Amino acid sequence: MRRIEAVLFASAAPVSREDLARVVGQGASVDLLVADLAADLQGRAFEIARLGGGWMFRTRPAYAPAIRAAADVGNQLLNLSEFDVAVLAAIAYHQPVTRDGLKDIFGREISRDLIGRLHARGLIANGPRAPRRGAPYTFVTTEAFLVAFGLESLHDLPDREQMQDAGLDAGP
């Protein structure tokens, strides 16, 4: 259990089950060891989160204001506009999607600069080329997207019906 703790503590990205199994040996149950470690951390300021296909330590949300007030986390904040988040959500729900596909969703051209900003932050990546004339690039979300939004996988996105019930629209 302490080897898993050490690996998670040292890692800036989620650590997969396979990587943790190499640390503790194939005979050990990684899931049980992680569960024991999570129980051991009850009441602490940080927790183990299942994100992006692996586990990582993260600060509990209740401590976010204290961290922002005292620590230099400015470069870690996403600082995305509402429209940036909407485009990111459209990519997540419709991936792989081209800029033309995004234009169809939003009814307006999506700038290369916006796509570039999302790409530079590692939230999206190039997907397969679209199978049509000119073979335009498509865009997909990344593991960094999952981590930034606290998701284990894309299956954790709210379904479109839930979003519509909440007054939000996930697009066509």
Q: Pick out the low-confidence regions.
A: none
Q: In one word, what is the shape?
A: globular
Give the % helix: 40-55%
Terminus-to-terminus distance: 46 Å
In short:
The protein is mostly helical.
Describe this structure in words.
With 172 residues, the chain is mainly alpha-helical. Helix content is 45%, strand content 10%. The chain is built from nine helices and four strands, in the order H-H-H-E-E-H-H-H-H-E-E-H-H. The termini are far apart. The model has no long low-confidence stretch (mean pLDDT 85).
Features of this protein?
172 residues; mainly alpha; two-stranded antiparallel sheet; 9 helices; 45% helix; 10% strand; globular
Give the helix/strand layout.
Layout: H1 2-10, H2 17-24, H3 30-40, E1 46-51, E2 54-59, H4 64-70, H5 82-94, H6 99-106, H7 112-120, E3 124-126, E4 139-141, H8 143-148, H9 160-165
Antiparallel strand pairs: 1-2, 3-4
